[in-house]
Amino acid sequence: MIGIRFQSTGCTRLAWLLCLLVSGGCAAGQTASPARREPSAGRASPPCLLTAKPALHKQALGWHLFDVTVLSQIEQGFHLGRVSRRLAGSPLPAGNFSDGTVADSSFFTNRDIARMSPADVRWGPTQPSQLATPPLTITRIKDEGKTAGFFVTDAKGQRFLFKLDVAGYPDLVTGAEVVTSKLLYLLGYYVPSYEIVEVAVEDLAVSERVEDGEEELRKTLEGRLRDGRFRASASRLLDGEVLGPFRFKQHRDCAECRALKVACAWVNHTDTKDHNTLMVWTGTQAVGYLIDFGTSLGADAARGPKRPCQGWHYDVDLPHAAAELLTFGLHDDGCPAGAPVISQAEGRFPSAFDPRHWKPYAPNLAFEELTEPEARWMAARIAQVSRPQLEAAVAAGAYHDPDDAERLVEILQRRQQAIVKAYLPEASR
Fold first, then answer.
1. 272 burial type by CB count under 10 A (0-12 exposed, 13-18 middle, 19+ buried)
2. What pLDDT does 428 receive?
């Protein structure tokens, strides 16, 4: 998962932007194919509950990032109804948001947070019978995305994707992936089963169909073995017909897709692009799953700890770059540039942040449509999460050091309070 990162001065950033516009425009004419639009019932009443199988098209990652960062930002200006309503202080509400509630949809179900026990939170969508059972056979080495890993089949014939920590940072990515999955499930979103596994090398075999499998496995596990065992997050592959990633842009008028921004701000899940979703057809309806949470909490799946400014601005942030250029680099967006790494297992996960100005690493077109009532709806759901429920979600991350788990609960609770203060000030008094 490749991001374009500006690490230079304002003038250099502007030069990069011009290059990006020129090269992207040329690429669009030569190689890009338009995405097929999913079935839609119209602008005023978007299809948040999909009972007809949608036709999906996965954009190339580079093109997707160029689309959401540049092309769609230009296109937004031509939606005169949306623009005029936003300027008038009355932005277009989500089509499925009524009286402060959101109905069950293809992306969300109204789980009763107050009635969910700590055990319900700890296990989330996982059934005890679905835990990976050794011996395990590697059927394919993971060759996409930032995180090292492989696909396995267990003794019961169940299929999983095992993803590993960045070498030198045990527990960091795997813990973030599992903890975040439990919290998003609690809030009502669809996520696959994610669990921590500790696997002995002798319980692992490589299928003969995997080319250079033993050598690839050796390289993958290098620097990640501890007493002959390795740790991974195990996500059980989804049942049903997997259609591919859905596009947030096509569902930006669904309140749950918009308000996901507030939930992601809570857990600092900055990698919220379309490619980290999966639409599954059950035979009667489509279900939109959120996947891949290795760049949440204090983790970055590509490098280990997050960079200090992740969550404060986009990696290619045009307004931020313009502000730096116009102020000769003096623009201050509030990013704590000197924020330290808390520990190898926690990375950089600050307790102090501004929920209203939080950003993922690339624009999410549903997040940009978020209205105040929709944000308050999700903030109210987050406010219901209790300390025991937080502790249960963090326990699922199976951190080796109890101090890491304790600090993580404290940070999540403080970020929860920041969200309540920002969106529900009357409840924070």
1. buried
2. 64
| Average pLDDT per 10 consecutive residues for the chain, totaling 429 residues | 37 40 36 36 58 91 90 85 80 89 96 98 94 95 87 97 95 98 98 97 92 86 90 96 95 96 98 96 96 97 93 81 70 77 96 94 94 97 98 98 98 98 85
Q: Residue 371's Cα: distance from chain center in Å?
A: 20
Instruction: Give the single-character DSSP code of 34.
Output: P
Q: Is 276 helix (H, G, I), strand (E, B) or coil?
A: helix
CA distance 289 to 107: 7
Domain ranges of the chain: 10-118+241-427, 127-236
Give domain 127-236's CATH number out of 2.20.25, 3.30.200, 2.10.109, 1.10.10: 3.30.200
**List of residues 6+ apart from 143 with CB closer than 8 A:** none
CA proximity to 132, closest of 156, 100, 149, 166: 156
Q: Token digits for 342? A: 């808390």
C-alpha–C-alpha distance, residues 390 and 297, integer Å: 13
DSSP string covering 202-237, please? GGEEE-TTSTTHHHHHHHHHTT--BTTEEEEEEEEP
Give whole-number Cα distances, 284 to 23, 49, 52, 213, 354, in Å: 43, 11, 8, 39, 41
Q: Is 347 left (phi over 0), alpha (psi -120 to 50) or beta?
A: left
